[in-house]
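User: Fold this; tokens only.

Assistant: Input:
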Amino acid sequence: MTYHIAVPDERVGMELDEFLCLQFPLLNKGFVRGLVREGKVLIDGQAVNPSRHVKSGEVLFVDFDEAEAEANTPVAPHQALVVLFEDEHVLAVDKPAGIAAEPERWRRDAASVAGGLLQLSLDRSEGEDGLEFRPRLLHRLDKDTSGVLLAAKTIESERALRDAFARGDGTIQKTYLAIVEGEYPLGEGESDLIELPIAPDSRRTGLMQVDDRGKAARTEVRVRERFSGFSLLECRPLTGRTHQLRVHLSSTGFPLVVDPLYGRRSGLKLSEFKLNYRPKKGYSERPLLSRLSLHAESIEFPCDPADQEKRQRVEAAVPKDLVRVLKQLGKVRPPRRR
């Protein structure tokens, strides 16, 4: 189908791909850029680059197969995302465990946070001029990790915050909670710095490992609560390597209680730590937790692209499944007195 679109005054100066993403909210940015590079988007009859800025009075000719476009549309979760913070620059949501941040490569029909953000923006938009803004995720969480995810609402905030994430100089500060095996050997008020380089695991596709030839990776660790045989850790990644926390914790001997890739469990059962526990007759025991025991508790960031000193901290409450595990650990095996 072919569309003819005049550039409205309020969007003059936008980059072409950004303009098209607002005009066609159900198309992802990669698909849009592909259309431009294939010559299926013309400005006043001329082929252009995706980064070309649109001008007043110009008319766009856009041609694409709607069936192909539908296959690239991100799907929203059944339950609307919980917004933790929002201003004119950014939007932070509480990601539930079990939902991928971006559409999964081999499961395009599965729900994602990106789809939920798009739906949120669509619900707020009126008229036929596309979206007022299109949220862009600035970082990711593993599918089975819960917690704070940050998205940019403008191209300016996206560029500023992506640069801050890439620098890794402490401008962006993230805090995670991790329930791990073992009693981490730190006293009250003490912290530990894990400095182990990380690289792709050549034996297992998609996984990472500690490797002297890898990229530098640093994680600061504190003990929030100690149980007999387990610990609740506060982890602050000072770099942003793939699976950094999971690899660092596992490599130091304190893997996540539930982590089928870097730990030894795909689920935690009450019988594993409650003495003499027996399930009810006729019932098989179900896991207390069957997802990663990891939660992105907070993120602190500069919230104004024009003023890097203006900062915002956003927190996500510990979800019920992790609260339930911590309650059982505390009730069955209380912390030892030191």
